[in-house]
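Thread: "does anyone have the structure for this chain?"

Original post by V.I.:
We have the sequence but no experimental structure in hand. Need at least a predicted one for the grant figures.
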Amino acid sequence: MNESLLLFSAITTLLYAIGTVGYLIYVIRSESTIHRIAFWFLLAGFVSHTIGLLLLVGNIKQMPVTTLPQTFSLFAWAIVGSYLAFQLKFNIRVLGTFVSPLAVIFMLLSSASPSQLIPSSQLFKSFWLTLHVATMFIGNAIFALAFCAGIMYLIQERQIKTKSFGLLYRRLPSLEVLDSLNYVCLTFGFPLITIGLISGFVYAGAVWRSYWHWDPKEILSVVTWLIYAVLLHERLAVGWRGRRAAIMAIIGFSAILVTFVGASIMLKSHHSFRFG
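Reply from O.Q.:
Generated one for you, tokens below.
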């Protein structure tokens, strides 16, 4: 079974990498055929990734988040899945050029990270844990799209201000489209991470008899939630748009990475893979 999992992981990484190369070529050539090929390679990688994760779940009999490689892999899967769904809805082709490298990076991190096998436990089969993991990973993956949209916005805005109407200017969507994408990601992602936090607290209460432990990841997760809460409030109440919203989306995803990596690797935490 381990050999099959490694094979699917390698195939997935290769397909994502080929898709990434295709998207980079698309930026240069801007031909619909090239985009179609890149998209189908990314989709094939997602299908391979899904099969690999299903095999993993069947093997370990619990959520695939008990080791660092599993969490990196699951996050890559969530990012690609979110992108494919948004692409079918909004058809912003160049977005794949910014999103697909993230998937490759997390797959490479998954392959390079040390893995310590965690025995199957009823603690990992709770409904609340499943809801917590699903909503947090999908919500954070959607915020990864907002992060990419924010970077694209700042690049496009700078090109307009400096009148540098080069290759990227002709490929990137308008500032209005990118700002709208940022807002849509926020309206989908924020409720998901809110449900994720609440279900995580409920799970903690059931397992440790306390909803709050001043755990580093709990604190960082709430800080991240507050960043997006402020962004959503300012957009709805004050009318924040454009550059401010793009910068906040970038800051928010940076906080997600700090929470994800910091609490999982560097800090002593219930969520840490170093300290157990």
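V.I.: this helps a lot. The chain has a mean pLDDT of 88.
O.Q.: and Residues 1-118 form a domain with the Four Helix Bundle (Hemerythrin (Met), subunit A) fold (CATH 1.20.120).
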